[in-house]
Amino acid sequence: MAQSSEARERRGAHAADVEAQREIEVREPADEPRGGSAGAAEDGAGAAAIGGQGGPGEGGAESGEAPSAPLESLSLHDGPIPHAPLPPVAGPWRSYKEILATLAQRVLDAQRPIRILQALRWEADVEEQFLRSKQRELPQVAYSDDLGFDPEAKQRELEEILRDAERELGKRDRLGQILRATADEYRKVVSMLTGRGTKAFYALSRELYGSPKDKLPDGKTSVRDMGFVLYDLLTAIGGERLGPSQQREITAEMAALDLNARFDRFFGGASIRVQVDDSLLADAAAGSDYVKIRSGAMFAKSDVDILEAHEGWVHVATSLNGQAQPVARWLAKGPPRTTAVQEGLAVLVEILTFRSTPRRAKKLNDRILAVDKAEDGASFLDVFEWYRTEGYEEDECFQNARRVFRGGVLAGGAPFTKDACYCKGIVLNYAFMRAAIQHDRAMLIPFLFVGKVAHEDVPVLHAHVTDGIIRPPPYLPPIFDDMNGLAIWICYSSFFSRLGGTALAEHYGRMLER
Predict the structure, then answer these.
(1) Is the pTM of this model over 0.85?
(2) Which of 55, 78, 365, 453 could form a disulfide with 230 if both were Cys (CB 3.0 to 4.6 A apart)?
(3) Do 47 and 180 meet the contact criterion of CB atoms below 8 Å apart?
(4) How far, in Å, are 51, 82, 134 from residue 419 at the CA level?
(5) What residue spans carry the Gly residues bias annotation (predicted)?
């Protein structure tokens, strides 16, 4: 027994020495090349932005307090921190990669039964009841008590992962910080889902997904400010004068056949299924290796082009790129902290490939304003009527309002805030790409597609390519295969902004009015 006690003391002393060594941060020189470049190439149609939201917070059904896990503020030039795994208390020695991969798999296993949008679904008869009331009564919504898992047990499981990750990797390990931020967000998601239909749901939704009232990293402009500017710009565009209108004559089955052929060409050997689903609420949704199309939906060719870029090139591709990681396996799944990057990338790719339209952009921007109205007390009925005044069809008004109020309080004041992420993500992704190009770090841009990431993750992940922990993304949207075009687009975009385009546009505006 004495020998066993002495051995434990020696192991504890050694662990303390290793942790002390970790306090000395070693950085690679900023001008020294590190790491490779990218290879070739949930409500998907439907996270944290720069600065992150991955720290712990108050949970609903937690059985204990999880260790703190905020990511540190990262420079684009940050390199990896040397890591030396603590010796195991029992069993064989394990490498850092083994420890990280094991913890990553535990996170994947823990999140598997957590289905956020599934838990927030409304039954089909809710819309029927609403229509019978002639849109005068709030919908009657009931959520199933069965989430598909035991919330308290799931909280304990995730808290154990957080403790083990901190113990086995240390607090300062940057990949460990990302993993812990991911696990901690799933812990909060469980608490959020247990509070469906209450203000507690909204409080956690706002913490996880943000709010239209949040400021952008400049500390001045809020997401809602951006929404108001875009509202004025997009409302002034006469879509019928921009090109021929496209009729929605493509059935769901025809769209699925077309997309299957397109994805076969893009993904090559990967088996990606596009299938028609009669239980889908949105027109389309992407999974890890599939895209679902709502049965009965009708599409124009431009709609199918958007689905190819949004669902395929971004949502499915980042899932497959994450699945290709042998160590950082959590990158295959998207906790809320990655939502702004994911959805913003998907829409930005639509824009960069000239697939988006003013109507599409307005639809996404109106979501910001709808969430903002609901936060300020607008009820489901108020938001439904607002959409009607914006020219949406009655069915669209219901679907759009439902997105805002699913899981929240229909009387107002406590919505589901996820839909504020789309346009925020466009702006932040553009800013990230612009900074990367201006700071000669363009090699980081493809790593936005390495899996489901937040912006602060990208320099960390790229720094670990050379040690084999991270693999470059195999699937990239075509415009990112060669970034010369993107670089010149960003260069001239910045140039036009500095030139003072408003005054020039007003000059020509006066000329056109003569």
Answers:
(1) no
(2) 365
(3) no
(4) 19, 39, 27
(5) 49-62
